[in-house]
Specification:
With 356 residues, the protein is an alpha+beta fold. Among the domains are: 135-250, Cupredoxins -  blue copper proteins (Immunoglobulin-like), CATH 2.60.40; 259-354, Immunoglobulin-like. The protein is 39% helix and 17% strand. It has 8 helices and 12 strands. The strands form 4 sheets. A 5-stranded mixed β-sheet has the order 3-2-1-5-8. Strands 4-10-9 form a 3-stranded mixed β-sheet. A two-stranded antiparallel sheet has the order 6-7. α5 crosses α8 (342-354) and α6 crosses α8. The longest helix is centred in the N-terminal third of the chain and has 34 residues, at 46-79. It is elongated, with a radius of gyration of 28 Å. The chain binds dinuclear copper ion.
């Protein structure tokens, strides 16, 4: 054995334990709370629980198969290796009916074992929810690069941040105004395409109060990566309840109360923002207008956590940056650069921030 090989064989145990530690660290962080989109360790709705169950079942099954194949490989490697001084040929054989039958039946059983429950899960996910219960019906339209949300019964039109209620059935109807997008909020449900000219259902019942983030999951153009989603699951009662959110959101926009916000409203009305954005009580476009150019309804934009579809935190500074040069924040954004001055951008930010 050469020196290099000898050193390597001495170091092998410590290399193996380092690799094992790295693997364990990776596995531990994969399940960490710091990964808010991790559906498999932390499902928060009935639909994502089904997906998580399948994911975990496949992980266990695949691990058993992986370990079994590796074990057979190493046993064969060690048991049948050439012994020193033994120069005879191993016994030569051709075909073994028992083996042939075994490696046909075992994979068939594995495939059947995966297919049958998977079909069951698919039917379960596609089941139309019982209509004799409270259902939050929302039409979701993907647009380059944001999501329009239309609450049919509640007559609410908003964007990007969806509000629902814990324990209540949610039915989304997904479509698109331009190209194919895909709705994906991993902790609440699986992915579903939003396709122009079609409407696909997606049902889930949230089980946890909180904020759940998601992402457009279909490459849809320059700012595909900046097409985020947030779903806020409200409790049933208390000041933060879903019903209170509905009541508040149905109200028309608050009147500006500071000179900066008043100046901002004038800029909003006079410089062209009004051509694409509705603010109830200030400027009304047809609610839910599906034109390519109409932008999100801004009636209560001040109460959102993010702007520009989860691209920037909702702060006055960020709104000013965004309205001054949208394409610098979001490549290809359809929002026009209106050539606002710094002061005008600041005033618009003061106005929009006041729309709680
Ligand atoms: Cu929309 Cu990717």
């Amino acid at each position: 054995m050469s020196n290099a090989l000898r050193t390597l064989s001495k170091r092998l145990p410590s290399l193996a334990s380092t690799a094992m530690l790295l693997l364990l660290a990776g596995l531990a962080t994969a399940c960490d709370e710091a990964h808010p989109r991790d559906a498999y360790a932390h499902p928060a709705a009935d639909a994502s629980e089904i997906s998580a169950w399948f994911y975990n079942m496949y992980m266990v099954l695949d691990t058993i198969i992986f370990v079994g194949v590796l074990a057979a490989f190493f046993i064969a490697l060690i048991k049948y290796r050439k012994k020193p001084g033994d120069n005879t040929l191993p016994e030569q054989s051709f075909g073994d009916p028992r083996l042939e039958i075994a490696w046909t039946i075992v994979p068939t059983l594995v495939v059947l074992g995966i297919t049958v429950p998977t079909l069951g899960g698919l039917f379960e996910l596609a089941k139309r929810p019982d209509q004799n219960q409270k259902i939050i019906d929302i039409e979701v339209t993907g647009k380059q690069w944001w999501w329009e949300l239309d609450y049919k019964k509640e007559h609410i039109n908003t964007g990007n941040e969806m509000h629902v209620e814990v324990g209540t059935q949610v039915m989304l109807h997904l479509t698109s105004a331009d190209v194919i997008h895909a709705w994906w909020v991993p902790r609440l449900s699986g992915k579903r395409d939003a396709t122009p000219g079609r409407s696909y259902p997606l049902n889930f019942r949230p089980k946890e109060v909180g904020s759940f983030d998601g992402q457009c999951a279909e490459l849809c153009g320059a700012s595909h990566a900046l097409m985020g989603i947030r779903i806020i699951v409200h409790p049933k009662d208390g000041p933060d309840s879903y019903e209170n959110w509905v009541k508040h959101t149905q109200e028309i926009a608050a009147k500006p109360t500071t000179p900066a916000a008043e100046a901002g409203q004038k800029v909003f009305m006079g410089k062209g923002c009004v051509a694409c954005h509705s603010i109830s009580g200030v400027s009304e476009l047809a609610v839910g207008a599906r034109s390519r150019t109409s932008g999100p309804n801004l009636t209560h934009v001040g109460s959102r956590d993010y702007i520009a579809a989860h691209t920037l935190k909702n702060t006055p500074e960020n709104i000013a940056t965004w309205v001054k040069n949208p394409q610098a924040v979001k490549p290809g954004a359809l929002m026009t650069n209106l050539g606002l001055t710094d002061q005008e951008a600041k005033d618009v930010a003061a106005f929009l921030t006041s729309l709680k």
